[in-house]
Amino acid sequence: MSMDLSFFESVDSAMEAETGRKEEILRIVREYDKTCRNLIAVLNRVHSVHSEEVPIIAQSVIDRIREVKQHLENLSQIVPYQQYYRYNDLWTRTVQSSLFIASFAFYLSTERLITTNEIESLFGVKINLQNDLQDFHISIEECLHGYVTLTSELSRLAINSVTAGDYDRPLKISKFVKELYSGFQLLNLRNDLLRKRFDGIKYNIKKIEEVVYDISLRKLSSSSKSDTVNFTGGEGDV
C-alpha cells in the first residue's frame, strides 16, 4: 500500500504561496522605502535654506505624500484579511519613517502637530486607535514613533536655524516640543522600544533649550528686541 503524499503536496503548495507573498511584500516595501528616502532628502534642505523657503519645501513634500499612499494601497491589497500582524514587521519601520516625514513637513507648513484624521486623509489608511482592527491599518505605536523622531529632527533644525540667521524659529520649536512631550507624559507606554525613545525627548528638549538660552542672552530674537525697544522707549518718556 503506497503512502498518500497529498498532505505534503498541499503543504508545499501553501509554502510556495507564502514565499511568493512575502517576496511581493518586500518588493513593495523596497519601493516604499526608496520613496521615503527621497522625501527625507528633500526635507533635509530646510536645514540650509532661508526661513521663507522652508514652507515651500514642506508643501512640496506634502504634495508628494500621494506616492506613500499608493505604496500603502499596494500593501493593503496583497496582505490577506486578518493577517496584518503576520506580516507587519516587514513594513513597520518604513511606515514609521513616512509618518515622521508627514509630521515634519506638516509642522514646517503649519507650525502644529498633524492630527490622526489628517494622517488618515493623507495616507488613505485607518489608524488603529482602539486596537481593534484586523485588516490593514497604521498602529498608534507607529504614529508615536514618528512623533518621537520629529522631536529629534526639530532639535537639529533649532541649531541650524540659528546658523541661517532665523532666531525666532528655535523659540517656536521649543514651545512645540515641550507641549508634545507633555502629551507623551500622559501615556502609559507599554512598548519597551517606544518608552526608551520617549526618554530621549528630554535630551532633545535640553539641546533646544541651550539654543534658546543663547538666543535670549544675546537678545537675537524679535521678541527679545521688542522687549528692549519697549524698555528704552519707556525710559525716554520718563
TrEMBL record:
Location (main, coarse): cytoplasm
GO cellular-component term (any): cytoplasm
SUPFAM superfamilies associated with the record: Translin
InterPro entries assigned: Translin, Translin_C, Translin_fam, Translin_N, Translin_sf
Gene3D superfamilies in UniProt: Translin, domain 1 (1.20.58.190), Translin, domain 2 (1.20.58.200)
Keyword list, A-Z: Cytoplasm, DNA-binding, Nucleus, RNA-binding
Highest taxon in the source lineage: Eukaryota
Localisation: Cytoplasm; Nucleus
Listed GO biological process terms: RNA metabolic process
UniProt keyword Transcription present: no
Keyword DNA-binding: yes
Molecular function via GO: RNA binding; sequence-specific DNA binding; single-stranded DNA binding
Pfam families: Translin
Family: Belongs to the translin family.
Protein name as catalogued: Translin
Source lineage: Eukaryota, Fungi, Fungi incertae sedis, Mucoromycota, Glomeromycotina
